[in-house]
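Two proteins, back to back. First:
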Amino acid sequence: MILDFHNHIFPENVAPKVIESLQKEMGFTPYGRGTVSGLREEMKTSGIRVCVALALAASPSLVTPTNDWLLSEREDELIPIGSIHPSLEDFKFEVKEASMAKFFATEMAQRVIDQAVQIFGGFGVTKGNPAERLYREVRAIRIYEGTT
């Protein structure tokens, strides 16, 4: 099972503008279309079972709608992480929402890797096995986050 931990996605109507902006302003050509549908297609063709995805809010006024949209896209194979903007005045509510989304993401990652270790059986905890390495990484993330 392949778990991809770093993806940025945008609503279908916004993604082309974001991709174009990245290419023009930063000289960076992103992989994929930056859309949920594009990400799901890539997951299918690449054999990726679960993706952790982040949407970026370009301004404080877009934080809540961005997070609402991102959470609406949540499914078993797509784990969202909320967005915060540094200039957001009433950030406490969004931080709480983003924290809940982050908690969901790490809990889901733990469930996925637990299943992977189970599938491999004793071999799943053998040093050098990808499941063992991912188990250690996900566990470290959960310890770092602290109590919920």
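And the second protein:
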Amino acid sequence: MEALGRALNTQYLMNGLWINMKYCSGVTFLCYNVGAETYTLQNATTAAGGGAANLATITRYWTCTGNGSDTWTLNTQAAAATVVTGAAATANCMVVEVDGVELADGFDYLNLTSTGGGIVVAITRDLTVQRLPSNLPAMSA
């Protein structure tokens, strides 16, 4: 069985869209923007964003150019709901991982929003039920 459906599910252009965390153990956000960018993490009780609240659990994230010419650099911060990447090219690409246990009690949905034109790719991982890709539930359902 391929990784898609067994180990992960992924969608492109997930900036600000709610991800259902009921079917996975965590989500990896792969983000890209040329120049400085601010990303904000939130959780909610519904797929429509009901009860949305900032989720201040980000303590580490990774950056690189995103073109394969360099290695990932670890960045650490006090727990926050935001990640602010620098303007240097070595910070154009950013990865942050969020485990399902980080969501507040009663919250099942998660999103990461770029304040600028950043691209946000969501990769749900450690799927609780393995399926053929065609049988995976919609990520926002």
